[in-house]
Design goal:
Layout: H1 3-10, H2 19-25, H3 31-43, E1 47-49, E2 55-57, H4 59-69, E3 83-89, H5 96-107, E4 112-115, E5 118-121, H6 126-136, E6 142-148, H7 151-160, H8 165-184, H9 190-206, H10 217-220, H11 224-232
Antiparallel strand pairs: 1-2, 3-5, 3-6, 4-5
Helix pairs in contact: 1-9, 8-9, 8-11, 9-11
């Protein structure tokens, strides 16, 4: 998890904090790195800084955290899909940065690649994607449509699409190791529990949440959800 993610967690309790108070919750980062990262988040409108040097999360920042944390609920629909979102884009070389941003977003939000410029999503936040397209000003270069498919066609589509499952599995394994270390510790604290919950939610955000029949054994053996539920009890 990035330092920016950590800062959004630290400030998500609604309290104004100065940089010294923030450092208490992020002891492994220098004051200089924290200050630079806070500046980056301010530029994105996720937090503000008052004239006394206190930082506070904005409504935009809270909405982002809510969106990310809600990804832990994606699994409820795993075996009930009937619809798929198709995302197609044609972004020229001179706008390469926008093309790279789009690909990175799709890869990190549970989409699979059917073709170089055709991506598939089964459980996605269409509002978030539309906001990104609007921000990048590429509305005329992206086509999104939702299709209701027969089970047979949906199965074919899933099989023919390249999903980032191995990356997701690797991240779940890292999370499970961290979670077990936390749970076995005699010094459990709220902020570290909140970091772990946020980290888990970020992984869920990347998870395409494929139907069970298409999941490899390495995924099926994971017990990340049970561990996540144990950690949540330490967040309050």
């Amino acid at each position: 998890m990035s330092i920016i993610d950590n800062l959004l967690v630290v400030l998500d309790d609604g309290n104004n904090k100065n940089i010294d108070e923030i450092r208490v919750d992020l002891p492994t980062f220098s004051k200089q790195i924290i200050s630079a990262s806070l500046g980056r988040i301010i530029s994105k409108g996720l937090i503000t800084k008052d004239n006394k040097g206190y930082y506070q999360i904005t409504q935009t920042g809270e909405d982002l955290n809510t969106e990310i944390l809600s990804c832990t609920n994606k699994f409820n629909e795993r075996d009930n899909y009937k619809n798929a979102y198709f995302v197609m884009f044609n972004i020229p070389e001179k706008e390469r940065i926008n093309r790279d941003i789009m690909r990175s977003y799709l890869y990190n939000n549970g989409f699979g690649r059917l073709h170089n410029t055709v991506w598939i999503g089964l459980n996605i936040n269409i509002k978030s994607l539309n906001n990104l397209i609007k921000d990048l000003k590429i509305n005329n270069k992206v086509l999104i449509f939702k299709a209701t498919l027969s089970q047979e066609d949906l199965n074919k589509l899933i099989k023919q699409t390249s999903w980032n499952l191995q990356t997701v599995i690797d991240q779940y394994l890292i999370f499970i190791k961290k979670a077990n270390t936390f749970l076995s510790s005699t010094k459990k604290n709220q902020i570290n529990a909140r970091y772990l919950v946020y980290e888990y939610a970020k992984i869920c955000k990347q998870d395409p949440v494929l139907p069970s029949q298409y999941l490899p054994n390495d995924y099926l053996k994971l017990e990340q959800i049970k561990i996540y539920e144990k950690i949540r009890t330490y967040c309050n």
